[in-house]
Structure formats: structure tokens, C-alpha cells
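Worked example 2:
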Amino acid sequence: MVRIRLRRMGAKKKPFYRVVVANQRSPRDGRFIENIGTYDPLSDPPTITIQSERASHWLVQGAQPSDAVARLLKKIGVMGEDGSVVAPAAPVAAEVA
């Protein structure tokens, strides 16, 4: 099963996380499929940078977010409160007269 989860980076006692798509059986900091963002909990306020279109793509494909990533995705508006995937805003095509 494919999961969207956090990969710990940074120094000892100064964590910095990358949001990655990885196989569930891979180690926490091991092999991953795609890097889709970062999370810095030590900045004030905490910095969340996630490519929302890639995150929603993987969620539609069936990837399961970890609990921490699900909270982050709800904060940035990719997931609804009930856990459903919010469709990314599609580019509006100009009407042909």
C-alpha cells in the first residue's frame, strides 16, 4: 500500500520533515516514490509547503495519508474535515462565442 508520510531530516533536536509518497513497508527515512513537500515545525509559525495538486493526485490514486500528514493536508485545504479529497481548482477555459 502507498502512503503519504513524513520523512525526518535535519539535525539532532532540530527536526525538519519532508512529505513523501512511499511504500508502507519502506523504512521511515528509506526509499520513497516522490517528494511532494516540506514541514518545518520549529519555525514560528510552523511552515507547511506541499504541492497540493500532487497530493490530491496521490490521494485519488488510493494513497493513504498518515495521521500527521492528514492534519497538514486539512490545514492547507487538500482534504476536507471528513477525510474526503477536495478537488484542486481547475483552470477556467475561455468561452468560445
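Residues 90-94 have pLDDT under 50 and may be disordered. DSSP finds two helices and five strands in the chain.
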